Amino acid sequence: MALRECGTCTLCCKLLIVESLNKPQGRWCERCGVGTGCRMYDKRPTECRDFLCGFLTLHELDESWRPSTSKLVIGFEGGEKKTVFVHVDPDRADAWKRAPYYHKLKEWSLRALAGRGQIIAKIGMRAIVIMPDKDVDLGPIGDDEMIVTQEKRTLNGIELDAIKLKRNDHRVALVMPPEERAGIVLDQ
């Protein structure tokens, strides 16, 4: 449920992919009136109707998080907002590292890891996993790849890391619960 309204913000119309319109990531949608909204709002695709912007729905975000100001569009994936995607305007690729955003993203990453979730900054196809103690730049992520968080044993104890795997990689079975693997074909 939305707590706020978009107002003149239309950044999701630039940063998000809309497959049904063949609209790529990082380019303004042809239907978007930049600063005014969708020119075909009543006929917008399901992807647009279903998208819930974090700024509009999260109580803890103040006006500084409005995407047109922050240059960040917050989106969710998975049950209970398990994965948070921070879509970053490529024209301001460092926006997620600025105050007050970076501190809040680090705070979220601590909570996300406890629930086996992830906070991921997306700059175009590039993905950076935000962890409490570091940021892991995985580079471009293809449609056939997924991001997983794993534990590594080190001399200092257990350390968390993020990697990308092909969706059909047999290691997916080791890091992903069976109910989340539904529909993924694993190589043997």
Can you describe this structure in just a few lines?
The protein is built from 6 helices and 9 strands; from the N terminus they run αββαααββαβββββα. It has helices spanning 12-15, 46-50, 54-57, 67-70, 101-114, 172-175, and strands at residues 32-33, 37-38, 72-77, 83-88, 118-123, 126-130, 135-140, 145-154, 157-166.
How would you portray this structure in words?
It is a single chain. The protein is α+β, with helices and mostly antiparallel strands. It is 19% helix and 28% strand. It has 6 helices and 9 strands. The strands form 3 sheets. Strands 3-4-5-6-7 form a 5-stranded mixed β-sheet. The chain has a two-stranded antiparallel sheet with strand order 1-2. Strand 8 (145-154) and strand 9 form a beta hairpin.
Strand order of the largest sheet: 3-4-5-6-7
Structural shape = globular
Radius of gyration using CA atoms only: 17 Å
Total number of beta strands: 9
What is the residue-averaged pLDDT? 88
SSE-based structural type: alpha+beta
Biggest pleated-sheet summary: 5 strands, mixed
Taken as a percent bin, the fraction of beta residues is: 25-35%
Distinct helical segment count? 6
Sequence of secondary-structure elements: HEEHHHEEHEEEEEH
Helix percent reads: 10-25%
In angstroms, what separates the terminal alpha carbons? 43 Å
Low-pLDDT runs: 181-188
